[in-house]
Each structure stands twice: as C-alpha cells, then as structure tokens.
Design brief:
The complex is a heterodimer of chains A (109) and B (115). Chain A is mainly beta and 109 residues long. Chain A has no helices and eleven strands. In chain A, 0% of the residues lie in helices and 58% in strands. The relative contact order of chain A is 0.35. With 115 residues, chain B is an all-beta fold. Chain B is globular, with a radius of gyration of 14 Å. The chains are: A mainly beta (109), B mainly beta (115).
C-alpha cells in the first residue's frame, strides 16, 4: 500500500462544474497536508495547505481534512479550462513530505 | 526576487559519468529537498536537509550524494550516472515555522538524460 494514494484519474469535468479530488494517507502521525498543481512540463505549484480538521477555503478552492479517516480532499468550484493540470497531494511528517502520484484533471469548455 | 533556481535546466550525459545538479535559494529557508519525477509518477524524495551540514536520506537515495555547506545551496551529485537515473529532478525549499508547519516551494526542474 502506498503511503499517499490519489484517485487514479484522469478526471474530466465540464466548465463551470465542481471538480473533486481525493487523497488518503497511511501515516497517522502526519501533520501537514498540501495540494500542488502541476502543468505539463512545469514544476509543482502550491495551491492549498491545511493543518487542522475541517474545511479551508481560498477563492474557488476548498481543502477538506479528516484526520480520523486519514483523508484529505480538494474541491474546485466553477472549474475553468485553465484548471486542467495534474494535482498532487502531499503529506508531511517529521520534516519530509510524501507525494501521491497525482490526479490529472481535464476541464472541457 | 529569484526565489529558487536550478542549473542546468537540461543535461545529457553518458553512463558512468559524474553529474552535479545545482540548487540555489534566496529565501534563507532552512529546509531543502531533492525529488525525482518519472513519467506518470509523483515526486519521490531523494535527500533532504534541515539546515547547513545536516542531510538525511529520502525514499530513493542510492546512487546520489548531497552536501550543504551553505544554507542557500544544495547540490545533488550522481557519482556514476546510470540510465535508470534519467528523470526530471526538482529542488524545493521551505521555512521552518515556530508552529512546525511549512510549505514547500519548487524550482523549475532539471531534465537529465543518461545515454
């Protein structure tokens, strides 16, 4: 079992819809949780981080964390074609982060 | 504001040669990291450093050497390159906050091909 698992994807949604990306992790000692967006051929870009249980909203993005279920998600509201990218979930414990393999999102106009 | 830079951006080398990838950050972040990303895969941690002169192994350290004599630099050396080390290499850095939480920021990457 991988330490961080994400939907295998690809995920396709129409423009204006809500995209839901999910991530589970195995290390209960994990402290910090991150979502990165990576466009093809580019480096990962941090878009959201969450440290406490519950929801955290930033513009069209909402991160949700449930430590009891070892689950973190990212919702993208009003999805735009520019949101088409690979989304990486990362989990941190004791100084280093472990990344999932990513979910590729395509937003169709 | 240069942030975090990597050099070279592209490198082709032959099997058995030594190669050094450079990483430089201007934020004075305490933590620095090296990852490799292979096609269709996420990021795998090679080595990381919590501060100057402190380094530790990640998930895939074999065949790589790191050093960190200055806070701002974190070079990664492939002592004897192999074809399996063909990959995109990303350097990242992060600050150590009093809360213990931090966010990583990535360099532009180095695309390395070993022939």
């Amino acid at each position: 079992q991988k330490e961080v698992e994400q939907n295998s994807g690809p995920l396709s949604v129409p423009e204006g819809a809500i995209a839901s990306l999910n991530c589970t992790y195995s290390d209960r000692g994990s402290q910090s949780f991150f979502w990165y967006r990576q466009y093809s051929g580019k480096s990962p870009e941090l878009i959201m981080f969450i440290y406490s249980n519950g929801d955290k909203e930033d513009g069209r993005f909402t991160a949700q964390l449930n430590k009891a279920s070892q689950y973190v998600s990212l919702l993208i509201r009003d999805s735009q074609p520019s949101d088409s990218a690979t989304y990486l979930c990362a989990v941190r414990n004791a100084g280093k982060s472990t990344f999932g393999d990513g979910t590729t999102l395509t937003v169709k106009p | 504001d240069a942030g975090i830079t990597q050099s070279p951006r592209y490198k082709i080398t032959e099997t058995g040669r030594q190669v050094t990838l450079m990483c430089h950050q201007t934020w004075s972040h305490s933590y620095m990291f090296w990852y490799r990303q292979d096609l269709g895969h996420g990021l795998r941690l090679i080595y990381y450093s919590a501060a100057a002169d402190i380094t530790d192994k990640g998930e895939v350290p074999d065949g790589y050497v790191v050093s960190r004599s200055k806070t701002e630099n974190f070079p990664l050396t492939l002592e004897s390159a192999t074809r399996s080390q063909t990959s995109v290499y990303f350097c990242a850095s992060s600050a150590e906050k009093a809360s213990g939480n931090y966010e990583q920021y990535f360099g532009p990457g180095t695309r390395l091909t070993v022939t």
